[in-house]
Structures are given as C-alpha cells and as structure tokens.
Amino acid sequence: MTNKPKKRKFIVEEHESIDECLERMSKEGYFPVRRMEQPIFKEEIQNGMVEHVPCGRTIVFEGKLL
What we know:
The protein has 66 residues and is an alpha+beta fold. Helix content is 15%, strand content 59%. The protein has one helix spanning 18-27; strands spanning 7-11, 30-46, 49-65.
C-alpha cells in the first residue's frame, strides 16, 4: 500500500511554467482535477489610508492520485 495522500496541491513556482508543474505532478503520480488562482496583494498607503493593491497571482493545481 502507498503512503501518498489521495489528493495534493501543487503550486506553480516562480521559476517554472504551467506545463512544467503539470509534468512534475505526473512524475509524482498525480493528475490535475482542479485549477485555482489566488491573488497576491500588497499594502500601499495613499492619502493616509491603507489600500490593498493586487500585485500578482499564484496558480495552484489540485492533483488526484492515479
């Protein structure tokens, strides 16, 4: 029996493309079932008020064990 979890999240790293992340998933025995994008915000002070300004995104794939 395997010790791998049935579901696992894979984050697309800064230095890799989406295809490279999917290939990494495949090598570990997972196939993608869901893609999620999470925004990244930074705080900026404008006119004495703190505003949250989007500055990027993180792409996360949910993988299911083959």
